[in-house]
Amino acid sequence: MFVDRALPDDPAIQWSTSLISSLILKSIRNYGISVVLTFDGRGVSGHANHIAIYKTLRHLVSAGRLPEGCQIFSLHSVNLLRKYLSVLELPISWLLPSDFCCVIGQEEYKRAKKAMLCHRSQLLWFRRLYIFFSRYMFVNTFQAITMETKNVKIY
């Protein structure tokens, strides 16, 4: 797991956009990454670190700094009711518009559950409920982050 002391998992600490940018671009180039899945502007639960990553990726896209062919998709944050519908959220997510829908299978669910259990220091009672009831453990929908073309006039 990658850890950088300048980027602590703490929503009270503002992360450096330039540091995040350089780390993301380095990873994309070093590993030949062509698709990046990230949080949206709401950060799923309003987590400042998640939002910082989204804003950085959105900036990299709008500035044209990503390697050719690299696509960025942001996760749809949903309201509290939909968040805890578990697998019942599947038909709703399937029917609503999105650029990419990911349904998590049984093996992927087990892997995600195991990953969540590795974060014992953050595994409060409500996160245990999250593992069993959160829609994000079963289905995720994403929207493409593309370069904006506002105020473009073609003659």
From TrEMBL:
Gene3D superfamilies: LmbE-like
SUPFAM superfamilies according to UniProt: LmbE-like
A single GO BP: GPI anchor biosynthetic process
The EC number(s) this enzyme carries: 3.5.1.89
An example Gene Ontology molecular-function term: N-acetylglucosaminylphosphatidylinositol deacetylase activity
Entry GO CC: endoplasmic reticulum; membrane
PANTHER family documented for this protein: N-ACETYLGLUCOSAMINYL-PHOSPHATIDYLINOSITOL DE-N-ACETYLASE, N-ACETYLGLUCOSAMINYL-PHOSPHATIDYLINOSITOL DE-N-ACETYLASE-RELATED
Family: Belongs to the PIGL family.
Protein name: N-acetylglucosaminylphosphatidylinositol deacetylase
